[in-house]
Design brief:
With about 270 residues, this protein is an alpha/beta fold. Helix content is about 30%, strand content about 25%. About 40% of the residues are buried.
Length: about 270
């Protein structure tokens, strides 16, 4: 594999990496940024996405031999010094490993749900705009064997650089689809035979007393406001019991407990 030296931050070959913080928010025309060695391994082994190029610090190349051996031989691998890489990215890249991935045409929620097995566990995210939480939930979904994640249109993009990093690449592994709104997800999963459970501190049933149906959708809402009342009224509601005087967890932590409870993993 040829290593291509980059000495000029304005080199057009590395244009997709320019100012990645700002351009992550503005969009990358079907591309996304993957960051770190572990995430790069996942990207190279993914059937759902492909790498377009890699940009690494020159002093990290020796430690990436095994990882880069997983990539297509024709993949462009750019190497730069720390000052040049920082100038390209717009901030200090201490991990020193970036890649541009390409999104394929996204599955519709209907297509994704139709592909799920007879016994399936799905996480449904509603209104989550924090990239750390979305990334952590994808990591939990992968860890506990969830079959898919569905998101409503108000959630942030799971392929935002920070969300992928926090997920340790799980956002590239767990199938997901985005629906216009939560109501359409409820209707779709209802038609597909899913039991639908909303996790809330005010849930009527302790999660430990909630049996797992063969097909289960677990709904998670944004911190603070939680899931909308009109949505909760359409679903079974469950809670995680806590110590007296404390009634809520970070949504990512709550998802780990709930997904573990309903999981077939292990």
């Amino acid at each position: 594999m040829e290593i291509i030296r980059i000495d000029d931050p304005a080199d057009p070959r590395v244009a997709p990496y320019l100012s990645i913080r700002e351009r992550d928010l503005a969009g990358r025309q079907g591309r996304f940024i993957a960051e770190g060695k572990v995430v790069l391994n996942v990207l190279f082994s993914s059937a759902r996405f492909e790498a377009e190029s890699v940009l690494v610090l020159e002093n990290r190349l020796a430690g990436l031999t095994d990882t880069l051996s997983l990539a297509p031989p024709s993949l462009p691998v750019y190497a730069a010094s720390q000052p040049v890489m920082d100038a390209i990215a717009g901030f200090h890249i201490h991990r020193g490993i970036l890649a541009v991935g390409c999104k394929r045409e996204a599955d519709s929620p209907e297509t994704l749900v139709a592909s799920l097995p007879g016994r399936a566990l799905v996480a449904v995210l509603v209104g989550l705009s924090n990239h750390d939480n979305v990334g952590a939930i994808f990591r939990n979904a992968a860890a506990f064997g969830a079959d898919a994640v569905l998101l409503d249109g108000s959630c942030c993009d799971p392929l935002y650089r920070k969300a992928i990093r926090v997920s340790v690449g799980a956002a590239l592994k767990v199938p997901f689809a985005v629906a216009a709104d939560a109501g359409s997800i409820v209707a779709l999963l209802g038609r597909s035979g899913f039991g639908q459970v909303a996790l809330s501190p005010s849930g009527t049933t302790d999660i430990r007393d909630t049996p797992r149906p063969d097909r289960l959708a677990l709904y998670l809402g944004t911190e603070g406001n939680g899931l909308p009342d009109d949505l909760m009224s359409r679903l079974q509601t469950v809670r995680i019991a806590m110590a007296k005087g404390f009634d809520s967890l970070n949504v990512a932590a709550a998802s780990a407990i709930a997904l573990h409870h309903f999981s077939d993993a292990g």
